[in-house]
């Protein structure tokens, strides 16, 4: 094991649950290394699938990438065909957003370091849905003796509507079983 001087050396990053844990700041961080992939359905799937996010920290960004893949399936774009220009522009923006994740830092602990004695704890759940998908997220709300409040992200659980359901909900198209 490497000798570590806790006063001079920076503490290492540990990999936990698919994300990096910065021991020094006690925060979760993301290290995103996007390979150069062709702008095809296969390349987009490879990029979206390369980001592992078991706790749902970045689920909204991944939902957009999956939505683009679904749009390509709907238009019957082949695995190695070049994608249409309008979708290529959307994908370029989403791919650039993934690069920005390196600046994201999420505290691992729910209770801040200088927070007083907790007198009330509540777990809040929120959910919503759209045509593209649905999601649920949970926050922990802490109240200390002086009535100072702190809310901490706990978990997000995204969902994605199946293409057959979307086709069925689009009343201008016949149901998938009629095709």
Helix content: 25-40%
Order of helices and strands: EEEHHHEEEEH
- The span between the termini is 62 Å
Number of strands: 7
What's the number of helices?
4
Strand content: 25-35%
Structural class: alpha+beta
Radius of gyration: 21 Å
Morphology call:
elongated
Mean of the pLDDT scores? 80
The overall number of domains is 2
What does this structure look like?
The structure is a single chain. The protein has 179 residues and is of the alpha+beta class. The protein folds into 2 domains: 11-108; 114-179, no CATH class. 26% of the residues lie in helices and 28% in strands. The strands form 2 sheets. The protein has a 4-stranded antiparallel sheet with strand order 1-2-3-4, with no helix packed on it. Helix 1 packs antiparallel against helix 2 and helix 2 (59-74) runs antiparallel to helix 3.
Task: Characterize this entry briefly.
The chain has 179 residues and is α+β, with helices and mostly antiparallel strands. The chain is built from four helices and seven strands.
Search tags:
3-stranded antiparallel β-sheet; 2 domains; 26% helix; single chain; elongated; 4-stranded antiparallel β-sheet; 4 helices; alpha+beta; 179 residues; 7 strands
